[in-house]
Amino acid sequence: MAFKYAVTDQNDIYFITTTVVGWIDAFTRKELAEVIIESLKYCQSQKGLIIYAWCLMPSHLHMIVSAKENYKLSDIIRDFKKFTSKKIIKTIEEINESREWLLDKFSFAARINMKNKEYKFWQDGFHPIALYSNEFKDQKLDYIHNNPIESGIVSEAEHYNYSSAIN
């Protein structure tokens, strides 16, 4: 039996990762990255999301998050992914995106998944891991902030624009 990651306690702090289908580097375009940033801000102000750390890599998003009291983290992330998926597809259609194959890939991913109608942007799930100890929290925080360094994008974590390391 496979182990399924799930939010078991809506009040815990979680390390989560959500990934673009096929690990496609969608967020190399500023316009697409901004969809994520603005949506995270909205989720903080309107949906009860508490973000402790985050890093938007070209193909995925890492965060350490929790939900305010009386909110469900799993619902917030579900809504975030649903909204950003639609908004990113719309943005790709509106901007002068040179990677014409992107929509084909997202359309193909939707055809092989019965839940999606036209496009599928995010992989299913968000891989939540509860952070029970300060040591584990520190480990995941270091991982998030050092991800752009390990990927060769920057040499200093605080130089990466799409990360809380700058703060």
Automatic annotation (TrEMBL):
SUPFAM superfamilies: Transposase IS200-like (SSF143422)
Domain Transposase IS200-like: 9-147
Lineage: Bacteria, Pseudomonadati, Bacteroidota, Sphingobacteriia, Sphingobacteriales
NCBIfam families: REP_Tyr_transpos
Stored InterPro entries: RAYT_transposase (IPR052715), Transposase_17 (IPR002686), Transposase_17_sf (IPR036515)
Pfam families: Y1_Tnp (PF01797)
Name this protein carries in UniProt: REP element-mobilizing transposase RayT
GO function term, MF aspect, one: sequence-specific DNA binding
Alphabetical list of Gene3D superfamilies matching this protein: Transposase IS200-like
GO biological-process terms attached to the record: DNA transposition
